[in-house]
Write a structure and sequence with these properties.
By secondary structure, this protein is an alpha/beta fold. It has four helices and six strands, in the order E-E-E-H-E-H-E-H-E-H.
Length: 134
């Protein structure tokens, strides 16, 4: 069974333009996300999917595999749908390009649950909230 991580990325954020390329502690946001994903099971392939040549260039510079997608996508999920026709994996873990605080162990847990319950059509990470401020 092939399970991989796709990081859909775009520059046209309405609230914070160029968000995924903004510098955080010396690295663009997308690189932080990719590096955190690298801490997962080494059998999990990771791909950045984007319509933007600048994101492709920067992502390749830090070692990411990239796939160029259409400019017509309305969401990250539709971008993942496009690359799924190329990758043909069994499961796709969608890791948004602005999730710089994703915990790699949670990605590993998700991977383990997919393997354990492969008959399920989809999975979603959730967490409980301890108080209303969260």
């Amino acid at each position: 069974m092939k399970i991989g991580i796709v990081i859909p990325a775009r520059l046209e954020s309405e609230r914070l333009p160029n968000k995924v390329l903004r510098d955080f502690f010396g690295m663009p946001m997308i690189e932080h996300v990719w590096r955190r994903a690298q801490f997962t099971n080494p059998k999990i392939e990771i791909v950045v999917a984007t319509d933007n040549n600048k994101i492709i260039e920067i992502s390749r510079n830090f070692g990411a595999v990239t796939l160029k997608t259409s400019t017509q996508h309305t969401s990250g999920l539709s971008r993942v749908g496009e690359v799924s026709k190329i990758l043909k994996w069994d499961y796709y873990i969608v890791l948004q390009a602005d999730e710089i605080l994703v915990e790699p162990e949670n990605l590993d847990r998700l991977h383990a649950e997919i393997v354990k319950y492969a008959e399920m059509p989809f999975f979603n990470l959730i967490s409980s909230l301890d108080n209303l401020d969260e």
